[in-house]
Amino acid sequence: MSGYNEEAYKQARDAAINRPCPFERALLSRCVSCMHARKLLLAEREVISCGHETAHLVCKAFHEALHQNARFALHMDADQPWPFAKEIRAQCGGVLGLKDILNQDHADVAALIAVATQRFGGMDRFPYSEIMRAVVHYEPRKKRT
């Protein structure tokens, strides 16, 4: 058994990061980027915090909207926790789907949300049915063997 204490790590993480990025997994997998992302090394792990308070709140709202819309598309129960692979599909597929809809060159999360909000008149008016197609079709990279 390892001497690693996961609870101590979580406490250290919470103390070190006041705004954890909701798209941390997508950023760490490098399928998207964000101008406000701040990478930290903590206990030999990479973690991402957000360097902009307003962008953090907007990204959290978009992350929640992706989860709400992706539950049906990814065949998940409402009370079921998000497994890693489905979380990656929601995050990467959602942002990349938004990038494609907006016909943008770069997948910068905060920039895409800002452009989409201006174009569609609010996050509640994003074309989630089109975004969900990208979520469903997104294939996370396979594990190395």
What does this structure look like?
This protein is mostly helical and 145 residues long. It has one domain (6-137). It is 54% helix and 8% strand. It is built from six helices and two strands, in the order H-H-E-E-H-H-H-H. It has helices at residues 6-16, 24-28, 53-73, 84-102, 109-120, 128-137, and strands at 37-42, 45-50. A two-stranded antiparallel ribbon has the order 1-2. Strand 1 (37-42) and strand 2 form a beta hairpin. The longest helix is centred in the middle third of the chain and has 21 residues, at 53-73. The chain is globular.
| Largest sheet, spatial ordering of strands | 1-2
Helices, by number, come to: 6
Net shape = globular
Separation of termini? 24 Å
Indicate the radius of gyration in whole angstroms. 16 Å
**Biggest sheet statistics:** 2 strands, antiparallel
> What's the quaternary structure here?
single chain
